[in-house]
Design brief:
By secondary structure, the protein is an alpha/beta fold. Helix 21 (about 770-790) links the parallel strand 29 (about 765-770) and strand 30. This is Amidohydrolase-related domain-containing protein.
Length: about 950
């Protein structure tokens, strides 16, 4: 039987069933080829690749065990890789040079020569060396202190940019608990206004970390802060990993250090609604994954280094782009943010379980309590990177101690002071070291804590931290209060077009002679970080103060501060005494004139060792007295209702509602008691408010135990407070102004009687505002309302970051300003046009406003000027006033500096404390305005007693 075949015409498709068989056949063949090629069963392509790349594989594997560091030839370089063509050599003459060497003890008198981006010589530099260079710029610094550039180990500069805008807030990712593949470099904003401000504090190098929302937040990068001609983040990097700009790694030189951000405790637990247990499990999962990859790499490399190429046929080097950075951590070191003993114990166990070293614990508020735990960390004892006094903003920071740096150093644990910019501004990083020195950290360690120690920890001490490339010329000793750079030189390039050094006193050219706090440090350890803060003795009996240098008190009219000593008294010619009984000064002058008291058998004698009596300071600008721990709701008064944000319930007063801070007072908080022990005796607090309407502030004694104690409430109502500004969720500025206008012209309800007092000038209106545009509107509103009601309104501006732009207008309108913070920063758009002060501008806001006739007061230099996050900073008000004095000596003297933080505040907020009834503070060894004085007593006529410490 004959078979028949059907043929299709040329070009016509085969029948459908045949076409499907062909397609499936081709797909199967393609899959088979791909599968065989993938696993080396076809043509043995991987075996050939291994054969061809043996040298590269051996080099890569050998490189895994090489410790990061500079090449051997690095020290022989004659031109910096960061050298900018055309930079003139600089010859600095007659300097006092802190080198960073010999454990920070070495100080030289001599010269420095910078050329080709490097420091070429230090000490006695002869003409011969200078003659080899052309166009040398010579700078005679007349004995000024010169140090290497300051290094900030913990900064969010350029990832949390200033002014703060939604489009450049890149500090945290909220996409997972563990994100080691993220990189801060990828978010670095080169337009951050913070760069110039940070360099104005002498900081030349920063480690830029992701934020602390995640258990593992990503990789951190070291940058030099000077602007580059390329204007890119990459061009600012200092020794980034070799792979960063490509996949090839040069195995002929050692690898470079990498840095990974971790966070323990409350932050990741809060963000991801978990607990510490969840966070530690997240670590362990991640490190187990990294360990599996590392172990696979080591097994692979063991075969390669043994020459067992047959065993590696078809195998690629084990790696995973997402986890490669964490694998490197297992071969290197890590930076982590931890607070409490439990966190250190967790992380130390983690380091031993997965066998990696911890470079430093950051924040680390309780580290000083557990030095032995730190020493059990795998490989090395971690350094501690911490704050001087920033604390108690959350429970984890509650046991922080100002004595922590000295205690850690005494336990041979490396100490680093850090910023957490823009939390604590990196511009004032050296002040963190200065405060640590005040509380007992040795001078050499304090200076090293912000220069050589962080540089060494970063593995970059061959470039920074010592006299290598960057120098800072200071206007005073770097640890002196208010020390400010007159010039900062990065990579041989001066960063400021002109030096604006302010002439400092001779005493400022030496490290301060700080008090002895040994007993306080011992008590801190004895009481597990919470030592008693109450006075050691309170008496209404006779207390006699001797060896006094000066006595400052209110003038008789109560408007200022004056010296009560006659010329020659307190100078060694005539030694005065001051006698106090029942909290009142009953005699002062020569001992003979007060003999009826000096012979009293129960008189308490207090030797001030050249110290002083001065007015108790008055603080405003925080919620001190209304909270214990800012981030713990159960310890705070809460936030006042605001009629512009939501309808206020009728039962509370509706639109006429106005809350009083006196009703929410808390006494005996640790921040209040610490401030009291530092000379701040009266606190003024307005209700904590989120928006427009604040309420009525209260003045109260920081030394009282409860509200019913004699003198505990100084004045139950001080002023009416509002806030005006631009913020998400708020109505427009014009709406806020319209509301204020209506309040003043048509008062009603509970608030009405107080607004009537504002209108007739008996109660101040205090407006928290920073924008010069809004301040100008308020000046106009004041004139408008005064014209309609026929009386003068007493208006005070709080914040005032841009107030200097309207200094003349403010003076003419008799409007005072409480600068909060005293040293401004462009946190947001309303504070963009600040007066930065030297070396950025000729003078700062304090001096400028005073020079133009504006009454000025100081608030605390807290965190982002947030009142609820700044109660810890009240204790430093004395130093803020001293800083202002040292920075504006042509417009301030000691009397007017005291007034900035006492009588001026009282006048601007309507507090009536008559002369002779104010608190006096006794300091030993110095006064409140410097790092030499220690508060030993508070004299309170209002409370009828003397508190002795």
């Amino acid at each position: 039987m004959e078979k028949s075949f059907a043929f299709s015409p040329r070009g016509a498709p085969p029948p459908r069933s045949a076409r499907h068989r062909i397609q499936w056949g081709l797909l199967f063949c393609a899959f088979l080829v791909a599968y065989c090629v993938r696993f080396g069963w076809f043509f043995d392509t991987h075996s050939s690749a291994v054969q061809l790349d043996k040298d590269a594989i051996v080099g890569q594997c050998a490189h895994l065990s090489v410790k990061p560091g500079p090449p051997e030839t690095f020290s022989q370089r004659v031109v910096s890789d960061r050298y900018q063509e055309g930079t003139r050599p600089i010859f600095i003459r007659n300097a006092t040079i802190w080198t960073g060497r010999v454990q920070g003890f070495e100080v030289l008198q001599g010269d420095l020569l910078l050329a080709h981006g490097l420091i070429k010589a230090v000490g006695d530099i002869g003409e011969g060396m200078l003659s080899t260079l052309s166009d040398v710029e010579t700078v005679d610094v007349h004995g000024a202190w010169v140090t290497p550039g300051v290094v900030d180990l913990h900064s969010h500069l350029a990832v949390e940019s200033s002014p703060s805008l939604r489009g450049s807030s890149d500090g945290n990712s909220f996409n997972g608990l563990v994100l080691p593949w993220l990189r801060s470099l990828d978010a670095l904003n080169t337009h951050d206004d913070g760069f110039k401000h940070t360099m104005a504090g002498g900081v030349t190098t920063s480690l830029i970390l992701p934020g602390s929302a995640d258990a593992i937040g990503g990789q951190a990068f070291v940058i030099k802060l000077r602007p580059t001609t390329e204007r890119t983040p990459t061009s600012m990097l200092l020794e980034p990993p070799f792979y960063l700009n490509g996949s090839a790694v040069d195995t002929s030189v050692p690898p470079r250090w990498r840095h990974m951000k971790h966070a323990c405790g409350e932050n990741p637990a809060r963000v991801y609604s978990g607990t510490r247990m969840d966070t530690v499990w997240g670590y362990r999962q991640a490190y187990n994954k990294a360990r599996e990859i590392r172990d696979a790499q080591d097994q692979y490399c063991a075969k390669a280094l043994a020459g067992d190429w047959k065993a590696l046929e078809g195998q690629a080097f084990p790696e995973d782009l997402q986890w490669e950075s964490l694998v490197d951590v297992l071969r290197g070191r890590v930076q982590t943010h931890c607070y409490e003993a439990v966190d250190f114990d967790d992380f130390v166990r983690l380091s031993n379980e997965f066998r990696f070293s911890v470079a430093a614990f950051h924040h680390a508020h309780e580290a000083y309590l557990v030095p032995d735990v730190l020493k059990r960390a795998y490989g090395n004892t971690p350094a501690i990177a911490m704050f001087a006094t920033f604390s108690r903003y959350k429970r984890e920071a509650f046991r922080h101690s100002e004595y922590a740096p000295r205690i850690l150093a005494e336990n041979d644990i490396p100490v680093i002071m850090k910023s957490d910019h823009p939390g604590i501004l990196s511009r004032f990083l050296v002040n963190e070291a200065a405060q640590a020195h005040y509380y007992g950290l040795d001078e050499n360690i304090a200076l090293a804590s912000v220069i050589s120690t962080p540089a060494t920890l970063l593995g970059l001490d061959h470039r920074i931290g010592f006299l290598k490339t960057d120098v800072v010329i200071w206007d005073s000793h770097p640890l002196a209060l208010g020390a400010t750079p007159s010039q900062v030189i990065v990579d041989g390039i001066p960063q400021f077009d002109e030096t604006r050094a302010f002439a400092k006193l001779v005493a400022q050219q030496h490290a301060p002679q700080t008090p002895d706090f040994s007993e306080e440090a011992q008590k801190t350890l004895k009481y597990d970080g919470l030592p008693p803060l109450e006075p050691t003795e309170s008496t209404d009996g006779i207390v006699i103060f001797t060896n006094i240098t000066n006595v400052w008190a209110k003038s008789m009219d109560g408007t200022g501060i004056v010296s009560l000593l006659e010329p020659g008294e307190g100078s060694g010619i005539r030694e005065p005494i001051v006698v106090v009984k029942g909290g009142k000064v009953v005699c002062s002058g020569a001992s003979a004139a007060c003999s009826q008291y000096t012979v009293h058998p129960e008189a308490v004698m207090v030797n001030l060792h050249g110290g002083a009596l001065q007015p108790g300071l008055v603080s405003f600008g925080s919620t001190i007295g209304l909270q214990e721990i800012s981030m713990e709701e159960s310890t705070v008064d809460g936030v006042a209702l605001d009629p512009l944000l939501a309808e206020v319930p009728a039962i509370t007063g509706g639109a006429g509602y106005l809350t009083r801070a006196v009703d929410g007072l808390q006494y005996g908080t640790r921040d209040a008691m610490l401030a009291y022990r530092h000379g701040v005796t009266v606190g003024i607090a307005a209700p904590n408010h989120a928006a427009f309407l604040g309420g009525l502030s209260v003045a109260f004694s920081l030394g009282a135990r409860h509200k019913l104690e004699k003198g505990a409430v100084v004045q139950d109502v001080a002023a009416v407070h509002v806030t005006i500004g631009r913020s998400m969720g708020l109505p427009s500025v014009s709406t806020q102004i319209a509301t204020l206008r209506r309040y003043l012209l048509h008062p009603s309800g509970e608030s009405g009687k107080w607004l009537e007092k504002v209108a007739d000038g008996t109660v101040p209106l205090v407006v928290e505002v920073n924008s010069a545009d809004i301040i100008a509107t308020l000046i106009g509103l004041k004139k408008e309302v005064e014209a309609k009601i026929g009386s003068i309104i007493k208006l005070t501006i709080v914040g005032g970051a841009e107030a200097h732009l309207l200094a003349k207008e403010l003076a003419r309108a008799n409007i005072g300003v409480i600068l909060t913070p005293p040293r401004s920063y462009p946190y947001d758009w309303d504070r963009k046009r600040i007066l930065g002060g030297p070396p950025l501008t000729e003078e700062g806001a304090v001096a400028y406003l005073i020079r133009h006739g504006v009454k000025v007061g100081l608030g605390p230099q807290g965190v982002n000027a947030a009142p609820d996050m700044s109660t810890w900073a009240v204790r430093n008000l004395r130093f803020d006033a001293g800083w202002a004095l040292h920075s504006a000596q042509d417009v301030l003297d000691k009397a007017s500096a005291y007034a900035l933080a006492s009588t001026n505040i009282e006048e601007l907020l309507g507090i009536d404390i008559p002369a002779g009834t104010e608190d006096l503070v006794a300091t030993a060894g110095g006064d409140l305005l410097g790092f030499e004085g220690k508060v030993v007593a508070v004299i309170s006529s209002r409370r009828g007693k003397v508190d002795l410490f």
